[in-house]
Amino acid sequence: MRKTYSLLLLLINLQLLHAQNGTEPIRVTDMLKIKRPDNIALTKDGSRAAFTLNTINPDPSNKNDYKYSNQIYVVTTDGLSSPRQLTTAGEGASQPAWSPDGKQLVFTRTVDSKSQLFLLSMEGGEPRQLTKHAYGASNPVWSPDGKKILFSGSITYKDMLKDSVLNVKDGLPAWSLERPGFNKNTGLMDSRIKADPDGNLEQVRAWLSDNEKDRKAVVINKLNFQSETNISPDLNFGHIFIINADTMAVPRAITKGFARFANADFTPDGKSIVFSGDLDSIQHPDRSLESEIFIADADGNNLRKIVGEEGKSYSSPGISPSGKWLAFQYGNTSFVSVPSLGIMPVNGSAKDIVTIPFDRSKSNFTWSPDEKFLYFTAQSNGGAPLYRLDIKTKKVQQLADFDAGISSFDISNDKIVFAKTEVANPGEIYVADKELKVIKPLSSFNNWVKVKKLSIPEKKTFTNEKGLSIEYWTMKPAGFEPGKKYPVLLNIHGGPSAMWGPGEASMWHEFQFFCSQGYGVVYCNPRGSGGYGLEFLRANVNDWGAGPTSDVLGSLDRAVSENWIDTSKMVVSGGSYAGYLVAWIIAHDKRFKAACSQRGVYDLATFFGEGNAWRLVPNYFGGYPWQPEVRKVLDRESPISYVSNITTPYLIFH
Asked: Which of 19, 485, 544, 554 makes the best surface tag, with the fewest CB within 10 Å?
C-alpha cells in the first residue's frame, strides 16, 4: 500500500512539474498586466521600502499604442500593509532615495525632455521640484546629514564650449575631434569669419557651420553615434553636481572639464565624494575606454585618483560604512572579459587591492551596516542570485537559487528587501533575513497569474566537444498530455553574452505564451553566453556561427530524444545576435518548418559600420573589416555568405 501511495505522489508531482495549477491560458494581452518592481531603497531603520513599479499603459499621444511607465511606491517591511502608490503624474518617476531621517524622498521625473529632481515629504503634500537644471539631474544621493544631494548631469560638447564653469579655461580640449583639415580643434569655436559659400576655405567652413546650426546638416564628432532608433551626433560629458536640499536651490559643479564622471557617493562623514571617471586629456573620449576611481572634497576641491591604470576600467565604487574600505569592479577595456571584484583601503593604492576569486559579472554592490559582508547580484547558471562576500574570510556565499532572478535589493541592520522574477510570478517585492532563510512577500502585483496554466521549465545539461557544460531548458506545452507529440519553438538569446533562465524577466511572457498556444519551448545558453565564467564567455571568439549552432542544436536534439516533440513542426526564433544565429542555422540546417529573426546581424563587415554595438567586431574577431585577414574571418562568419543555401520560410523583423 505504501509503494502504491508513493507512486501516486510521484505521478502527481511529475504532472505539476510540467504545468502550474490553473485553467486559463496566457494570452497576448496578458503582457499589459505584468507589473515589475525595481530600484528598491530602504529607510535607514529598515521599516519602509520605496521602489519603482514598471507598468505598460495606453499611450495618450497614440490611442493605438502603449508605453512603459514607472511610478514610485512605498511599503512597510513588517508585511502588515499593502504597497501604497506615491506618484501619479503622467511623466512617471524613478530613482527614489530616502533622506537619512526617512522624512523625505528624492526622485527623478522628466520635465521638458530632461530628468529633474523632486522632493516628496512623507508628511503629505505634492512633490516639489528641486532642480531646473539645464543639463538634467539624475542618480540622486543624499549627504549623511541630509542637507545636500549629489546628482549627475549630461552636457553636450557645444554646451561645454560655452559653459564658463565647467569649461574652466574657456578653451578647447587637448584631444582632437579628428576632423580632416583641422589642426587639433581650432576653428570649432564660434567664429566671426563671414560665411560665404563662394569664399575662401575659412569662409566656406563658416557657411557649412551655419548649415549645421540651422539643422540643415548634421556633423558627427564621435564614434558611438548610433542608438537603437536614431543617431546622436554630438559628444556628451557626464558631470557631478551638488545641491542644497532646499526647493530650487542652485547646483554647484563638483567635476569639470572635457571628461566623464559617474557613480558618485559621499563618504560616511560627508566630507568627501567618491566617483568613477576618465581624465584622459590626450585621446578622444570614444577612444579612451579606461575608467579610474577618484575622491574629492565635498566642495569639489582636491580631486585625486584612488586607483586606475592604462588599459583597465575601474567602476562601481562602493564605500564601506566606516569609510575605510572601497569595493569595485575592474577589468580589461579590450577583448572579451569578466570584471574582477576588488577591495582596497580608500587611502591605499593599486598594490593594496585584494582580488576576490569569483568568475561572474557582478552588480549592485551593497555593504552590510556592520561592514562584515558585501552583498551583490550576479548572473549565473541561468539565474541572478544574491551573493554575499565575507570580508574576513574572503569567501562568497550564494544566498538564492539559480531558478529566479533578483533585479534589485537593499539592506538594513536585520533584513533584506528584494525584487524577484520566477516562473510562478513575473515580479514581486519580498523581505527576508540577511541570509534569505525566511522569506515573506510584501506585494501581490501579479496575483492574476494564479489562475493561469503555466509551463515549468526543466533544466538539463550536456558536455560539448570543447568539454564545456551546456545548460538548456525544456518547457512542455501548458496542456501537455503524455503520449502526444507537440510542435516546438527553439528560442535563442542575443548578446552574444546574454544569458537566459527561469528568472529572465524579459522572456517570462514570451515563453509562457507559446507554451499556452500548444508549443513546447527549448532554449539554452550556448558557448559565449554570460553567467558561466571567462573560459565559457570567450569560447565563441572567432566562432560566432558553427560552435554556438552546435550547442543550440545539440540542446534541441536532446529534447527531441525525450519523444514528445513533433519533428515535422519545429520553428526557430531569436533577436539581435540570435537573429544572426537563426540566419546561420537555416543556412546550414534544413530541419525547421519556419524561422524568424528580429533586429539581426547578417553581414559582420556591414554591421561594423551601421550597428551601435560595432565594438563587438574588434573584440571578438581581433580587428577591423579593412584588414585582409580579419575580413576573411568576418566573411566566413557572416550568414550572408551562405544566403543561397536558405530554403526555410524565413521572416525578418528589422
From this structure: 485
Strands 260-266 and 272-278: antiparallel
Q: Name which of 608, 634, 640 is nearest 621 in CA terms.
A: 634
Task: Report the distance separating Cα 634 and Cα 628, nearest Å.
Answer: 10
Q: Is residue 382 part of a domain?
A: no
Q: Which residues lie closer than 8 Å to 114 by C-beta, 6 or more apart?
A: 133, 134, 135, 136, 137
- Verify cis geometry, omega within 30 degrees of 0, for the bond prior to 496: yes
Question: The C-alpha cell of 266 is what?
Answer: 559621499
Q: Give the pLDDT score at 163.
A: 85
Residue 230 placed within a domain: no
Cα–Cα distance for residue pair 504/611, rounded to 1 Å? 25
Report residue 268 as a C-alpha cell.
Answer: 560616511
Where is pLDDT greater, at 15 or 371? Answer: 371
Domain that holds residue 528: 455-602+638-653
In a domain, 460, yes or no: yes
Q: Give the residue-averaged pLDDT of 522-527.
A: 98
Residue 108 and residue 92 in contact, taking contact as beta carbons nearer than 8 Å: no
Cross-strand pairs, 596 = 573, 651
Query: According to DSSP H, which parts of 426-507 are helical?
Result: none
Output DSSP code: residue 479.
Answer: T
The cell for 446 is 501579479
HEC string for 517-547: CCCEEEEECCCCCCCCCHHHHHHHCCCCCHH
Burial 332-344 (b: 16+ CB within 10 A, else e): eeeebbbbbbbbb
DSSP string, 106-158: EEEEEETTEEEEEEEETTSS--EE----TT--EEEEE-TTSSEEEEEEEEEHH
Could you give the CA distance from residue 158 to residue 226 in angstroms, rounded to a whole number?
19
SS3 75: strand
Nearest to 589 by CA among 519, 537, 541, 650: 650
- Name the β-bridge partners of 274: 265, 295
The pLDDT value given to residue 579: 94
Q: What pLDDT, on a 0 to 100 scale, did the predictor assign at position 534?
A: 94
* Domain presence at residue 108: no
d(CA 533, CA 243): 42
Mean pLDDT of the region 592-606 = 93
Residue given cell 523632486 in the structure block: 118
Which SS3 state, helix, strand or coil, does residue 82 take? coil
